Amino acid sequence: MNDKLLSERLKMVASFVPEASSVADIGSDHAYLPCYLMNQRRISHAIAGEVNEGPFQSAVNQVKRSGFTGTISVRKGNGLEVLEPREVDVITIAGMGGQLIRNILLEGIEKLEGVSRLILQPNVAAHLLRERLADLGWELVDERILEEDKKIYEVLVFDRGDGNKPYQDLSERERAKALLFGPMLTLERNQAFVKKWSHELDKRERILRSMENSDATSEKEVQVKDEIQLIKEVIS
Length: 236
Ligand SMILES: C[S@@+](CC[C@H](N)C(=O)[O-])C[C@H]1O[C@@H](n2cnc3c(N)ncnc32)[C@H](O)[C@@H]1O
Known about the structure:
seven-stranded mixed sheet, alpha/beta, Rossmann fold, 9 helices
């Protein structure tokens, strides 16, 4: 694989992998990320995990073509079940929804022993990861947002530590905001961030209009109004 062809999104994920670490990339598809990391001589070895046969075969072929059969082990299985305890330092999970990533981590929680960093790239619902991992003693140490091919992606980096550190001393409302928008992304407020949340604001305003056309005032309506208010506070 030509390294230049790797997406900016996966390059961003790769940039947070510490030198000389061992990595498990779960939901690896073509194993582009582990192959790139090996090509860059950034990691000692990797595991590419895939649950589906097609992407698993693509990963096997890509690893063979790249000449990494001795250092990248391609394994078929669901989530973290492909890992032995204490096999890797870093886990990457990219290109899935936040809920699926969260479930993969929770279902395989015992496999996280010995892992010091999680690099997660949820396509949607990043807040579910911030919320749950804070409770489990994973500290959000970095987060990025970027636009590629008209899509906006978030990359979240967690190390073992005090999960509540990024949110300490915040009021309940400020904490809810930080979990939803990302404490570091909110401070940076770059173009991609403003674009994403302007789009989310439009979506919610459309939903609210359709609710207002119906008679019932529901809990959902209150929630949507509250979210609209939060978004306006953050992007205006
Ligand atoms: C959209 S692709 C993303 C591939 C790559 N990680 C990326 O970011 O470009 C998601 C991949 O995750 C795999 N996948 C979904 N659920 C999984 C699970 N529970 N365990 C392992 N792989 C899974 C799918 O088969 C698919 O290949």
